[in-house]
Amino acid sequence: MRQSDRNAIAVTVGLNAPIEEEELAIYRGQIVLLPPTPASIELCAHARTMVEEAFHPYDPRTAQHVLDIDDFVARAANVKPRFIHDPQTRILQKAYLAELGFDPWRTYLDVPRMRVVSSDGYLVSGVGHKQPPHRDTWWSAPMQQIQFWLPIFPMTRECSMEFYPHYVESAVANSSNDFNIYNWNATGRKNAAQHRMGEDNRGIPQPNAALEHPGAVQMVLPVGGAVIFSANQLHATSDNVSGMTRFSIDFRIVDIEHVRHGIGARNVDNASTGTALRDFRRISDEQEIAPDIVSRYDEGEKPQGGVLRFAPDEVVKV
Predict the structure, then answer these.
(1) pLDDT band at residue 304, thresholds of 50, 70 and 90?
(2) Domains plus CATH for the chain?
(3) Which of 35, 164, 182, 216 is most buried, with most CB under 10 Å away?
(4) Long-range contacts of 275-279 (CB under 8 A, 24+ apart)
(5) Is the pTM of this model over 0.70?
C-alpha cells in the first residue's frame, strides 16, 4: 500500500473480484457501492411495509411533523424489533447475500438493524440516535466485520451517511476504552427508547474532540442499493436537513476463515473490550462461531451482570 492510501478511500461499483479478494480490499478501506438487485429490492420492500404499518395512517417520512415525540418513539420502538426478528427478514438477508455470491459455509451473519433518523433535530437520542463519527470496532466489533447499509425510502445527500477519507488508517483519540459490549447489551441497547430528548448518555463511543480533518464523502443510493464497508471505517450519520425522517437497514457479516486466521482490518485506535462475534450465525445452518475462536477475541474482563449476546427473547449472561 502507498503511504498516501492510508488517508484515502477507494470507491468501487459492484463486486468485481472474487469475494475473498473484495473482503481484503474492504479491510484496507475500500468502499463498495452496489446497484439494486431483485433480492435487495425485496428486502427493502419488506422493511417498508412494516414501517408503513407502524406509522399508519401517516407517511412515515413526514410523521414527525404531526405526531408528538412520545407517539413517534413508541411506533419506532415497536417496528425496529419486529423487523429484526421477523423470520422473513432473515430469509431475505440470506437470499441477498447468495445473490451477491457470498459462500454460505464461510459467511456468518448477524441480525439486521433498522435505523430511524429524524430531520432537523426532532429526535436525536435513543431509537433515533444520530451517530457521531465512529468506527464500529469501537463498539467491540471484530476487525473482520463487513457492513451493509441500504435506504428503505428514496434519499438525498441531505439525509445521508458519511465517511472520512483522512482516517482510513489514521488514529482518532476516542472513548472506546470505556466501552464494553457486555455492559452495553445489559443496559444501553435495552434502554434505547427511554432516551427521547437531548444528548444520548448511554456511553456511546465517540471522538474525544472535533475531527481535525472533517472532510467527508456522503453516500446517496437508490432504494435497494447498498454500500459495503469495513467496521474499521470512520463514518457518521449526516445531519438530516431534508425535512423527512430517514429509514434504513444495516447488517454485518464476517468471513470465518479470516476470523480463524486473524486476517482483517488494521486496528489503529480501538480499545473497547468484549467481542460481538457471538452475534453471528453461519448462513448455511445458523451455527454459532466456535467458543474457542470467540475466546481469542474476547478482550478484557467480563463485567458482573453483563450480557454476552443480546436478544429480547434470548439473553446469555456472563
Answers:
(1) confident
(2) 3-317 (2.60.120)
(3) 182
(4) 275/140, 275/142, 275/181, 275/299, 276/110, 276/139, 276/140, 276/141, 276/142, 276/145, 276/181, 277/142, 278/308, 278/309, 278/316, 279/110, 279/111, 279/309, 279/310
(5) yes
Residues 117 and 70: their CA atoms lie apart, in Å, by 15
Full 3-state SS string of 10-72: CEEECCCCCHHHHHHHHHCCCEEEECCCHHHHHHHHHHHHHHHHHHCCCCCCCHHHCCCHHHH
Partner residues linked to 219 by β-bridges? 161
Q: How confident is the model at residue 312 (pLDDT cuts 50, 70, 90)?
A: low
Cα–Cα distance measured from residue 155 to residue 213, given in angstroms and rounded to the nearest whole number: 26
Amino acid found at 215 = G
